[in-house]
Structure formats: C-alpha cells, structure tokens
Write a sequence for this structure.
C-alpha cells in the first residue's frame, strides 16, 4: 500500500471511530464521557505514525486515534469504551484511563498534564538502559498552564530526555479561549525557558506535522533531548457531548472547516494523481467493516465479573523488572496477635520518666 493511502486510512479511521463512538454514546452504550477530536486527526496521526513499537505515546482524552495508529486493535478499544472484560482495563474503566504497555500506550489520568512527568520517567528509564526509544506526550494548551507541564519540561531539559511534548493547541480549554489563560502568544515560546526548542506547525496539515515530528523524534532518539511541538488546530465540536459551544466566535468554525485536515489530504491525493473517488470508496468501505466488527465484538463481549473487581488494581509485574510483592488479602485480614502490656515494674527508663512527670 502507498504510504499516502495508508495515512489517509488512519486519518479516516480516527474520525470514523470517534463518530461511531459519539453515536453509540447517544444510544447509551458507551460508558462515561465522549471527547471528540474532530478536526485534530492530523495531529495524532502525524505524531504517532513514524514511531516504533518500543516507543511510548501518552494520549489524551481526544486522542483515540493515537491508540489505533500505535496498534491497539479497534475491537479492543471499542470493548474498552463499552466497559467490557475484553477491553484494555478489563472493564474497570471506560474512556480515559485505559492503556496498553504491550503497544507502548500509557493510559491517561483525569488530572490534565499529569502524564507529562510520567513520560519523563519512562524516558529516564530509556536513558538509564541506553535504549534509543522515544516518548511522545500529548497535552492541550489548557493543560500547559498547569504545574505538571512546567516541572516535566524542566526535568526533561536538564536531563536531555527523549521526550517530544506535543501540544494540541485547539484554542479552547472547555469554554476558555487561549488568550484568556496564557499571556504569551505561543505555547512553543515556553520551551526556551527550559533549554530546548519549541516549534510550531499547522496541526491541520498532515505534511507539516509529519515533517516537524520527524525532526523532533530523530533528535530525541539520537540523544539531543526534548522538543516542544505546538500544533495549531481547532476543536470543531464542543468540549464534550453535552457542550454546544455557544461561546465560540462567529465564523471561527467556518474558517477552520475550510482547513479540514482530511479534505486537505484528499486534495493532495488528487493532485498526486490517485483516483480519489475510488480510494475514498474503498477506504470508507474497509473502515465501515472494521467498525461494525469492533462494535459486534464489544457487544458480544462479557461484562466484567464482580469477583474480579479487586484484581489488577496494583501492578505486580512489569516485564523485565523484579516482581513487586503485594500482601495477599488473607494476610491483611488475619488478626494481629494482641500486644502484651509491659509488666509494671519493667517500664523503660523513658516510660518511667514520663509517668513520673504525669503524676
Ligand atoms: C487539573 C484539571 N483541571 C480541570 C480538569 C477538567 N477538564 C478536563 S478537560 C478540560 C479542558 C482542557 O483543555 P485543554 O488542555 O486545552 O485540552 P482540550 O480539551 O482542549 O483538548 C478541563 C478543564 C481536569 N481534568 N484536570
Ligand atoms: Mg484545548
């Protein structure tokens, strides 16, 4: 398959997967909230596409595409959203907190930017073990105003860690526009304070994202340290399914609609001489089949069993690391033998002195 067609497939799969998820959510089948990345597909596809299986990504609430491009099967991701036993967290969670160490995808947490210091930890491990792997850690421009971002950037800068911080600047953090939560113009400008480069690109242009990320990932892999890549893009829908985003400025949506990343890529395919109608039809049919299959898999998968509710809560095994010992539940439940009161005369000198003071 041509690389251009493969990239088109990932862009479309990302959008269609989310679209299907929104519909299923409206039918009460998907648990938890739904945070659409409509319009931001080129950021995740362009950032994750060139990575190796051993590299790590740290996706956010709008980055389901990052899971897919990194190799998590659509079925498994759908089962995760359904809260089924066959999902990434085996039914312990739905949307946000599933990851897959086998695919190099770190599950996010609800605290914005909290995964950025974790990405530094993983990159630190790469450095200690002399492994040439890279971490790609996403954050929103809103999350970039939290302390975790600044601490992570500082640490990564000092230790020249193999982290690429990818800011998805979609111009809103819930209803707050970027100029109301940042006094500098670009998130990329912040990198200089931590001793590494910050670059901007159009997050709606897949070519730009691929070029800039290619350079940043190569630098990281070769030991030249972190880069902050700011992808300017736009959140086409509301923050979540319940948000109609009435606070947005008139025409803003239309202006960004004109720069839709998928339509831009289609125009490029056409110019390159690909038979666009045919490619489009084939890609859409393939994706529809895969999504139908993913939904069928998720619906037919069993719910998690109540007796499994307390398993896998703590990591007890990390491949290649010594096993962590977790006190078995029976041991915790066992009653401690009562401690003998010390005999009166046998009080320690300290006890004797404090008693004397009290009486
Ligand atoms: C520390 C923290 N504060 C607030 C929230 C609630 N919250 C979840 S997403 C969000 C908006 C985040 O904006 P941004 O970082 O720009 O990412 P975007 O949603 O635009 O992709 C907020 C306020 C949270 N999850 N964590
Ligand atoms: Mg934002």
């Amino acid at each position: 398959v041509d690389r251009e067609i493969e990239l088109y497939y990932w862009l479309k799969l990302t959008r269609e997967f989310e679209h299907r998820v929104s519909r299923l959510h409206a039918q009460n089948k998907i648990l938890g909230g739904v945070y659409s990345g409509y319009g931001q597909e080129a950021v995740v596809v362009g950032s994750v596409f060139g990575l190796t299986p051993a590299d790590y990504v740290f996706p956010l609430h709008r980055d389901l595409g990052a899971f897919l491009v990194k190799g998590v099967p659509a079925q498994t991701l759908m089962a995760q959203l359904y809260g089924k036993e066959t999902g990434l967290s085996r039914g312990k969670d739905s949307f946000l907190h599933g990851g897959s160490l086998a695919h190099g995808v770190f599950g996010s947490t609800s605290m914005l930017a909290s995964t950025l210091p974790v990405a530094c930890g993983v990159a630190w491990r790469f450095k200690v073990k002399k492994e040439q792997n890279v971490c790609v850690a996403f954050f929103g421009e809103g999350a970039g105003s939290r302390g975790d971002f600044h601490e992570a950037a500082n640490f990564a800068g000092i230790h020249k860690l193999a982290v690429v911080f990818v800011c998805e600047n979609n111009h809103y953090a819930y209803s707050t526009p970027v100029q109301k939560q940042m006094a500098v113009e670009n998130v990329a400008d912040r990198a200089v304070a931590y001793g590494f480069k910050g670059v901007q690109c159009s997050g709606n242009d897949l070519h730009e994202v691929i070029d800039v990320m290619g350079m940043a990932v190569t630098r990281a892999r070769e030991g030249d340290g972190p880069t902050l890549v700011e992808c300017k893009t736009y959140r086409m829908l509301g923050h979540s399914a319940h948000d109609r985003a009435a606070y947005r400025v008139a025409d803003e949506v239309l202006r960004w609609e004109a720069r839709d990343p998928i339509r831009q890529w289609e125009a490029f395919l056409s110019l390159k001489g690909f038979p666009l109608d045919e490619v489009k039809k084939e890609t859409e049919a393939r994706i529809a089949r895969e999504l139908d299959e993913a939904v069928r898999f998720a619906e037919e998968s069993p719910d998690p069993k109540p007796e499994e509710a307390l398993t896998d809560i703590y990591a007890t095994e990390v491949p290649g690391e010594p096993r962590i010992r977790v006190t078995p539940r029976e041991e915790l439940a066992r009653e401690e033998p009562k401690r003998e009161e010390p005999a009166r005369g046998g009080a320690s000198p300290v006890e004797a002195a404090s008693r004397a003071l009290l009486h």
